[in-house]
Amino acid sequence: MPRVPLIGRLSPREYVALVLGFSFIAFETILHIVVACLPTPIIKWFYHRSRSLFHRLSRTPPHRRKAKTRSEEQKASDRILNARDFEDLCKIHGYTHEEHVVLTKDGYLLGLHRLPSKMGEKERSPGSSTGKPVVYLHHGLLMNSEVWVCLTDTARSLPFVLVEQGYDVWLGNNRGNKYSKKSIHHGPNSTKFWDFSIDDFAWHDIPDSIQYVLDLTKASALSYIGFSQGTAQAFAALSIHPQLNKKINVFIALAPALSPAGLAATIVDSLMKASPTLMFLFFGRRAILSSAAMWQSIIYPPIFTKVIDQSLLWLFDWHSTNITNDQKIAAYAHLYSFASVKSVVHWFQIMRNSAFQMYDDDVISPVIRTSVSSYRPARFPTRNIVTPVVLLYGDRDSLVDIDIMLTQLPTHTVARRLRGYEHLDILWGNNVDKDVLPHVVDTLRMYRENSDENPITDDA
């Protein structure tokens, strides 16, 4: 299509999408305000009507559905769906957790969760060293630590499996999310609070959280397991903090993210790559999709699950067939957590430039076009990473191009393919206990055996 001259880099088709996008955001904002003003009985009435409509349109008649004996997974799904927080989720599975708070060097308070003891095992001295090898887990974009423990089967939950293997398990949280929505400098209603990107996670959140864990456990090093953006944050942190490489004995990257090619939704992909800062016009400069939690609370869970499934299919071409419907209903309720618009803008900058770069504050004029650029944003020097890196990636994950990724990582990187897996499958897939977790456990054990410190024993 021809470009609109002197206005920008967008085509007429993209301008139409832009107008429609603004219209949708405006409509959603108005609807959000209206719903917020409605009394609770009316909201409950709409909730029950949506449930009735869903049952009427579903294939199984209501009377037959009620007559069926509920499976153990359905019962577990209901319990997890209604769990309020990380503590409730741990109690469902029979574990006791600890809560810790890290103060980053730039003033954010981050919530850490710890699983120090096996199921039914009494913790001897909370908040102290257990003498066990330490594993640190970090979530992905728009998530929090709950995504690791919201599974319907304890045997498929990585943190619980690692606890039973004798590890001291820690789970981190990014600034701004459900467990880290506080700073000593700015309140969460301030735009300054949300002025952070992947750079800040790399400079502060990851190294400060890891140092806190090492100081408390008195361990010399720990193992890092990241999911999606949690892997990108570690790639970035290890590349700019040489000393951090000595504190992580192995880095296991689940569904690794470095420089994705883009989205499956071509119109959204081209629009945001053409001008990533359009995200600020759509969503402002604070938290992105901040109304998601409200919609989740008033929409019947199976309907909410269908909405998420269709969104993932449209945006990423993920079909999520490896995740059972009961697991989706349980996990999707814990999927979303607050994140800054700026961090999402950062991802579109990375996609646009096909480079794992730091946040670009420079606004390049759309009129000036030269064959040679006089400016290039600083890139994270990921080839400098010394820590052993193991990638576990799904061969159906649209966000992973393993060949390109390996060219940006050190030569000692090991890549393991998970056949038939997409992105979220690696967290919640029906067979992760057979296809994913054994790889993680074997990798951790192998790198622990290479160290004489903190060996795993049967009574650990």
What is the percent of helical residues? 40-55%
| Helix-strand makeup class | alpha/beta
Runs in which pLDDT lies below 50 for 5 or more consecutive residues are: 1-7, 61-67, 365-369, 454-460
Our count of helices gives 18
Overall, the morphology is globular
Taking the sheet with the most strands, its summary is: 9 strands, mixed
SS elements, strand count: 9
Radius of gyration: 23 Å
Membrane topology: Single-pass membrane protein
Pfam families: Abhydro_lipase
Family: Belongs to the AB hydrolase superfamily. Lipase family.
InterPro entries: AB_hydrolase_fold (IPR029058), AB_hydrolase_lipase (IPR006693), Lipase_euk (IPR025483)
Blueprint of the fold:
Elements: H1 12-37, H2 40-57, H3 62-67, H4 72-81, H5 86-93, E1 98-103, E2 108-115, E3 134-138, H6 158-164, E4 168-171, E5 182-183, H7 198-217, E6 222-227, H8 229-240, E7 248-254, H9 266-274, H10 278-283, H11 292-298, H12 301-316, H13 325-332, H14 341-353, E8 389-394, H15 402-407, E9 414-418, H16 425-428, H17 432-435, H18 437-449
Parallel strand pairs: 3-4, 3-6, 6-7, 7-8, 8-9
Antiparallel strand pairs: 1-2, 2-4, 2-5
Would you kindly provide a written description of the structure presented here, covering whatever features stand out?
Keywords: Hydrolase, Lipid degradation, Lipid metabolism, Membrane, Transmembrane, Transmembrane helix. The protein is an alpha/beta fold. The chain has 18 helices and nine strands. The protein has helices at residues 12-37, 40-57, 62-67, 72-81, 86-93, 158-164, 198-217, 229-240, 266-274, 278-283, 292-298, 301-316, 325-332, 341-353, 402-407, 425-428, 432-435, 437-449, and strands at 98-103, 108-115, 134-138, 168-171, 182-183, 222-227, 248-254, 389-394, 414-418. Strands 1, 2, 3, 4, 5, 6, 7, 8 and 9 form a nine-stranded mixed sheet that branches. Strand 1 and strand 2 (108-115) form a beta hairpin. The radius of gyration is 23 Å and the shape is globular.
